[in-house]
Amino acid sequence: MLPTFVRSTPDGTEQGEFLSLDLGGANFRVLLVKVVSGENRRVEMQNEIYVIPEDVMRGTGSGFFDHIAACLAQFLEKMGIKERKLPLGFTFSFPCQQTKMDEAVLMSWTKGFKPTGVEGKEVVSLLRQAIKKRGDFDIDVVVVINDTVGAMMTCGYDDQHCEIGLIVGTGTNACYMEQMRHLEMLDGDEGRMCVNTEWGAFGDDGVLDDLRTDIDRDIDAGSLNPGQQLFEKMISGMYMGELVRLILVKMTKQGLLFQGRATPELLTTGHFKTSYIYTIESDKFVNLLLMILHKMVRRLVPDVDVRFLQSQDGSGKGAAMVTAVAYRLAIQQAERKLILDTLRLSREQLLEVKERMSDAMLKGLSRQTHQQASVKMLPSFVRATPNGTEHGDFLTLDLGGSSFRVLLVRVRAGTKHVEMNQKIYSIPQEIMQGTGEELFDHIVSSIADFLEYKGMKGASLPLGFTFSFPCYQSRLDKGILLKWTKGFKASGCEGQDVVKLLKEAVRRRMEFDLSFVAVVNDTVGTMMTCGYEDPQCEMGLIVGTGTNVCYMEEMRNIERLEDDEGQMCVNMEWGAFGENGELDDFCTHFDQTVDETSSTPGKQRDCEKCLMELTNKGLLYRGKVSERLKTHGIFETKFLSRIESDRLAMRQVRSILQHLGLTGSTCDDSVLVKEVCSVVSRRAAQLCGAGLAAVVDKIRENRNLNHLSISVGVDGTLYKTHPHFSSIMQETLQDLAPQCKILFRKSEDGSGKGAALITAVACRVRQEQSEN
C-alpha cells in the first residue's frame, strides 16, 4: 500500500502540452502529448523509441542518465520544441520508494540493468543533473509514476468515475484513490491520494495457503523467487501458461487426456506459453476475462456498480495525464493561495488589531470622543460580580422575539446551586403590532399565569428583564427603547422606559408586584452566570450569531459617569469595531461584499463570500455557479462547524454540500470548501483573540499588575460547536497577551440564569448600602 502522491483524477479541464518519458527496458519511449479541453477535448500523441546500449545499461549511473538526456534532446529537436520548458511525466518501471510526487529512490535494478551509483539514490535529481550538465534544454519534471497509476489516469480522462487501476499481464497490480486520513504513514488527512497496492505480494504471509493448490506450490517452487509474489503467480500472465501445462500433465498422467501419453514438449517447463491461451481463446479471450471478472465482482460486492474500461498506453498517455492533472492542481493551488492569503493574518497584523482595539476602547470610555467611537463601551450599571452570599427567589423575563420566557430562579447562599423553572409564552401577531399597553398587559398576564402555576400568586419579587432590543440604559432599572426590531411595532414604546411600561402594566393588573426590575444585557448575564461559581470571572464573551464582550472596568475610567469609586461592568458592543475604518487595512473584498449585502451596510463586518470567487475562477464546482450558491446566507455557521470536524470524511462533506443544494461537487471541491471554511474561521478566531488581548491587558494595566489571572464566561454556538475556534482564539490571546493567564468557562443561559444573578447581586449591593 504505497502512496503515489497523485492527489486527483482528471476532471476534464486539463489542457496543454506535456512530455512523457517511459523507461522500463532496453528500449524506451519519449512522447509529446497534447491535451485539449472544451467541446473538442482530445489527446494527441507523438513518440519516438530509443535504444539503451548494453554498455550503458551496465556502465555508470552518470553515463546512463547522460544517454537518457541526449535522447530527450534529440526528441525535442525533432519536434521543434527544444526552446520550450515543458512539464514531464517520468514512468520509471523499477522498484522505487516514492517520497514525493517528483521524487523516487531506486531500491534495486531489475531487468538486466546495472548502472553503478544509482541504487539508493533519487532518480529524478540524477536526470535533472544530466539535463543541467548539457545546458541546451530544460524540462520541468512534475511526476514519477508507475504504469498502474497511468492505466487509471488514462481511463479517468474519458470517465471521471474511474478511480481504480488494474493491470493483469506479465505481472499484476492495482491502485485506487484512498482517503488521506487512512494513510497513517503520511501527515495530513484532507482529500485523497492514489495508493499503489503492489498486491502481487498478497499471500506471502500465508493468508492464501488454504486456497493454493499443489500446482500453485509447484509453480512457486520452480520460480526465481520462491515464497514471494504468490498472488501474482496465481493470476498473472507470466505464470498462466505454466499453470495450464502442469494441469495438462496431471490430467494426462491420469489418462484423462491424450490417451495418457505425454510428449517431451509437454513435460518441458515453460514450453506451454501464455500466448497459446490467447490463441486458443482467440479474440474472445479479453471479453471472456472481463465478463468473468465483472460477474465475480458483482457477486462479491452487489451494492457497487463497477464498469471495466480498457486502458490504452498507461505508461505513455497515462504519465502525461498524471502530469496534466498535477500541473492543473499546481496552478489551481497557486490561485487558491493567492485568494485565501488575503484572509490570512500575520502576527504583526494581529498586534496592530490589538492596538487599534485598545485605542477604540479608550475613545468609547472618554466623555469627549464617546459619541464618535465605534466601540461604545456602554455602562451596564452592574457594580459587582457574585460573592456567594446572594440568596432569594428571583423572576426573569427573557424577551427577544415572538416567544418569550418567564423563569423562577432560586439562589441559595453558600451552595453555589441555582434552581430554575421556566415556561415559554407566545405573543400573537396582532399584539406585536398593536399598542404598547396591549403588549405589556399580555406580558404581565403571562407572568401572573406563571406565578399561579408555581403556587406564588400575589408574590412580590425582584425581576431581571432581558430585553433584546436596542436600548439606552441610564440606570440598572431604566432602559429607553430606541427602536423596535424583529417584527415588533407596538405603538407608544419607542423613546419610553420599558421598565416603567412594565411596572404600569403590573399596577393595572393588581395581582402581584415587582420589588425591583433590572434591565439586563445577555453578555453581562454570561459573565455573571460563570462568576457565581468562579470569583475570578470578570469578563463575558459571546461568539455566536453575533459577538460581544463585557468586563469589569474601573469607575474612574468611565468618564461619562460621575462616580470614581469601585468598578462597573462595561458592555463593549465590540461587534461594531471597524466602522470608523480601524479594520480597513485587514478587510478584503469578500468582507466588502458581505457588508454591502447585509441588512446593516457598514456595520459589524464578517467574511464568507470566498466560495463564489473560487467558483468564478474555475477552482470550485468546475467553474459552474449554481443559483443555490448565489443565495445569500446559504452557508450557516452550523455547516461551517460540521465541515471542519476532524472526524468528517470528504464523502460527508459532499453530503452537506448536496444538502445545501450544491450538487455535482467532487472530492476536490470538498477539500477546497473545507480549506475555505478553515481559513475563514481561523481568521475570525484570531481577530477575536486579538480583541480579547486588548481587553485583558487593559484590566492588567488598570490594576498595575505584572501578571493577571482572570476567567472569562463564554457563550455562543460558534465557540461551543466549532471544532477549532476556541483553541485558535486562546492560542492567539496567549501569544498577544503573555502576561495574562486566562481561563475560559462555558456559560449556560446568560439571558435567564445570568439575568437572575444580576438582579440578585443588585439586591445584595442595595441591602449592603442600606445597612451602611
Give an account of the 3D structure.
The protein is of the alpha/beta class. 39% of the residues lie in helices and 20% in strands. The chain contains 24 helices and 24 strands. Helix 7 crosses helix 8. The longest helix is centred in the last third of the chain and has 36 residues, at 667-702. Residues 1-157, 339-532 form the Hexokinase N-terminal domain. Residues 163-285, 538-761 form the Hexokinase C-terminal domain. Its EC number is 2.7.1.1.
Determine the number of helices (DSSP H or I, runs of at least 4 residues).
24
Provide the spatial order of strands within the biggest beta sheet: 12-22-21-20-23-24
Strand % is 15-25%
Runs in which pLDDT lies below 50 for 5 or more consecutive residues are 598-608
Secondary-structure-derived class: alpha/beta
Radius of gyration: 37 Å
Gross morphology is elongated
Report the span from N to C terminus: 80 Å
Helix content: 25-40%
Query: How many strand units?
Result: 24
Overall pLDDT: 84
- Tell me about the largest β-sheet: 6 strands, mixed
Characteristics of this structure?
24 strands; membrane; repeat; ATP-binding; alpha/beta; single chain; kinase; fructokinase activity; 20% strand; 772 residues
